[in-house]
């Protein structure tokens, strides 16, 4: 089936478009129906993460998505935000299954301790945790020329051509 | 499907029924609705996710924020969800140990500390 590429301005509304295109290509590639929901969520998470990074750094650069249907269905989502330790290398790290220590104590006193943690911080904290839980074949690597990061994910594809 | 929000009262509990997709685009609308409920005096809020078709980390962030806001004002918060694909998201992120999850609104209503 080959390759589909899209690029979009870092606006939340376009993440939905990327999800729709991604799922359409995944279905044509023969990804099993049983994991389509996971593919949809993973593509959305990777794109949301890229949009959040661009917005955090006031970047208008396009977020790039590459969908490749071969023996595997592979998705690469590339951002252009400065690389920091919060954005790569956390997959499989047990510490990130408890973003901001939310599990330690859910009492009112702990809620007060969480006042410095925004909704967005929580979303960023759980995003890669969610990706690592959803996708067996996941890598978050530095982008080309050391700028940005690329989230690479793949799933078995049944009828790539 | 677009986000849909509908609030109703059951005694001193407020049930917010959420439907459609809760993602990076629609999550701010959900946040604004919950903030308005809390600002309007709601202290025991049940968010019913039964009709949610899609939930991402942005939506989870809003739900964590709602729990924080309510506990800081002495309130309480519970979720209703019986869809495996949504429950799986809570399990993967470990947030099933943070939130009180119920399978029905009735169970959440009975379980919420009043």
Explain this structure.
- The complex is a heterodimer of chains A (161) and B (114).
- With 161 residues, chain A is α+β, with helices and mostly antiparallel strands.
- Chain A is built from four helices and five strands; from the N terminus they run E-H-H-E-E-H-H-E-E.
- Chain A has helices spanning 12-29, 36-56, 108-113, 119-134; strands at residues 2-8, 63-69, 72-78, 137-142, 149-156.
- Chain A has a five-stranded antiparallel β-sheet, covered by helices on one side.
- In chain A, helix 2 packs antiparallel against helix 4 (119-134).
- Chain A is globular.
- The termini of chain A are close together.
- In chain A, 38% of the residues are buried.
- Chain B is of the alpha/beta class and 114 residues long.
- Chain B is built from four helices and five strands, in the order ββαβαβαβα.
- A five-stranded mixed β-sheet of chain B has the order 1-2-3-4-5.
- In chain B, strand 1 (4-10) and strand 2 (13-22) form a beta hairpin.
- The longest helix of chain B has 16 residues, at 57-72.
- The termini of chain B are far apart.
